[in-house]
Amino acid sequence: MSDLFSLPFEEDKSRPAAPPLPERRVLSVTELTAAIRGLLETGFGEVWVDGEISNCRAWNTGHVYFTLKDGGAQIKAVMFRSTVRYLKFKPEDGLHVIARGRLGVYDPKGEYQLVCEHLEPHGLGALQLAFDQLKKTLQAEGLFEQARKRALPSLPRKIGIVTSLDGAALRDIIKVLRRRHPNAHLVIRPTRVQGEGAAADIAAALRAIVKVAGVDVVIVGRGGGSIEDLQAFNQEPVARAIAASPVPVISAVGHEADVTIADFVADLRAPTPSAAAEMVVTAKDEFSARVTRLSQRLRAAARSDLQRRRANVHALTSRRGLAGWPARLAMRGRHAAELTHQMGRAASAQIARRQRVYRTLRLRLEARDLRRHLSVIKSRLGDASGRLAAAARLTRHRADSNLASLAGRLGNLSPLAVLSRGYAVCWNADRTVIIRSAGAVAPGDRVRVTLHEGELECDVRRGERHGSDNQGF
Amino acid sequence: MDPTIKDFESAIAELETIVKRLEDGDLALEKSLELFERGVQLSRFCHAQLEEAERRVEILTERGDVKPAPTAFGADPGEADRTR
Asked: For residue A243, what are the contacts with CB-CB under 8 A and spacing of at least 6?
């Protein structure tokens, strides 16, 4: 390492000036950095460093960058994803660790850093630290809250079991259930319970079994083993799967003394797998006992209810003055029934009678009405015919008198009627022209004269004319 | 079974209420008879549920199928034979 100090990358003023180089050789930054890296990387090899983590940042690439420091110095450090995944715990600020790694140089920034291959917590075991860290996280999320814990079903329809098929846990659970709950229905989801990938396996099994119709309680666990054997139950995937279960989960891991993260998250922690089975059965037994107790109480309550009623009746009937009541009430009852019946009958008879009366009355009423109507029509008819006859008579009478008057008037108009009064009509000889003037005839003419009775044929002897004012009649 | 009964939990809760009411008394005769009848119905339901379940051990495979478990995990050989 002593040759490290003789490198010319820092001028040391305290020392005499370096002897002039035989030949001035100019290095590029890249060349120099490459030379430095070569020295650092080969000069140190694998180192173990004890320090406290600070400025810890996990990148989403999966790499973790931090600074390791102690009282006097600090060094940048990085842990790549490929090695981070083997860590049992999460690097975080303030953690005192021992890091194993190699020195490296990051050319673009001219920085050297410790490339960690492994970290282990100083003091505590890594497993314990991981346990503490996860517990803290889940607790902060409230997953251990008592309020989250659900009661076991009174009578599970199907009991889900997540464990290894060939472990002691399954045998123990089945043994207890066969003894205590002979008609239990079990659904087993086999899973690895230790080793690489066991946690993911258990989590997947838990998610699968709660989907089976009818499974309303799940036992997850394994038999006893070393603390490393129980690690799967301390890992986050298992804890998350338990927390997410829609039905109550009983954790049953190892022995009484073993406490896992699964135990904190589960609705119920059983110290052993057998105990988990007992818990399920106890719930069922309690339910059964409750049903039996309630059935008995139901019958007792009904019995005492009846007895109380009987006693009440007895007390009433045995009181003085009330002794005869039941019989009297019964008689009254009968009497009342009869009365009711009679009343009913009377009422219906009366109604029938009234109906008959009404019917008769109505018929009579209708008949009378018709008759009256008829008589009105008749009288009107008679009246009419009488009036018609009278009218007819009157008409004939009038006609008769008219006729007489007409005849009279006709008689007056007749020339004969004038003749009867002494007048005569003088015609020419042929009786075609009435002679109205004496001048119309000459003496010697023949005229004819009509009288009231008969005619005269006369010869005119002389004519004599009177004034015109006397002309005519 | 009975459409008016939802599940054991509600059945037993209702039964509890009925018993309490009957024990308190002060009910009309008709009401108490009605409650008693309902109570008998409920307690029969609960007893039936307790007896009804059938012993069975099944395995849920990784593919999601539910199959009867090998005899070694199930009941005694005699019982297992009966279910076959």
From this structure: A138, A143, A148, A265
CB contact burial A308-317 (16+ within 10 A = b; e otherwise): eeeeeeeeee
CA-based radius of gyration for chain B? 20
Contact A114, A103 (CB under 8 A): yes
Tell me, what's the pLDDT at A24? Answer: 80
CA A171 to chain centre: 49
Q: Please indicate whether, in this complex, the C-beta atoms of A155 and B47 are within 8 angstroms of each other.
A: no
Predicted-assembly ipTM surpassing the 0.90 threshold: no
CB–CB of A291 and B50 under 8 A?
yes
* DSSP assigned state of A439: G
pTM assigned to the model: 0.53
- Phi/psi of residue B66, nearest 5 degrees: -110, 120
The sign one gets for the Cα dihedral A401, A406, A407, A409 is positive
CA gap B36, B44 in Å, rounded:
12
A209 in Cβ contact with A242 (< 8 Å):
no
> Does residue A427 sit in helix, strand or coil?
strand
Give B46-76 pLDDT, tens digit per residue: 888 777 766 788 889 888 888 888 776 654 4
Mark the ranges of chain A whose per-residue pLDDT is less than 70. Answer: 1-21, 124-125, 316-344, 346-347, 364-418, 466-473
pLDDT in tens, A158-198: 999 999 998 889 999 999 988 888 788 899 999 999 988 89
Q: How confident is the model at residue B35 (pLDDT cuts 50, 70, 90)?
A: confident
Residue A371's Cα: distance from chain center in Å?
74
**Interface residue ranges in chain B relative to chain A, Cβ cutoff 8 Å:** 8-9, 12, 15-16, 18-19, 22-23, 25, 27, 29, 32, 36, 39-40, 43, 46-47, 49-60, 62, 64, 66, 69, 73, 75
Q: Which two tokens stand for residue A318?
A: 């045995």
**How far from each other are the two terminal CA atoms of chain B, in whole angstroms?**
27
Number of Cβ within a 10 Å radius of residue B73: 20
Closest approach of A313 to chain B, Cα-based (Å): 13
The tens digit of pLDDT for each residue in A190-232 reads: 999 998 889 999 999 999 999 998 899 999 999 888 877 888 9
Residues 6+ apart with CB under 8 A from A52: A68, A69, A70, A94, A95, A96, A97
DSSP-derived letter for residue A232 is G
Beta strands in A15-110 (DSSP E): 46-58, 64-69, 74-79, 96-106
Non-local (6+) Cβ contacts of A93 within 8 A are A53, A54, A55, A56, A66
Q: Which residues pair with A270 in a beta bridge?
A: A252
Q: Indicate yes or no: CB of B73 within 8 angstroms of CB of A165.
A: yes
Angle formed at CA A305 by CA A304 and CA A308, multiple of 5 degrees: 80
Instruction: Tell which residue, A238, A244, A240, A216, has the closest CA to residue A160.
Output: A216
Q: Distance (Å, rounded) from C-alpha A169 to C-alpha A341?
A: 82
Residue of B nearest to A211 (CA): B64
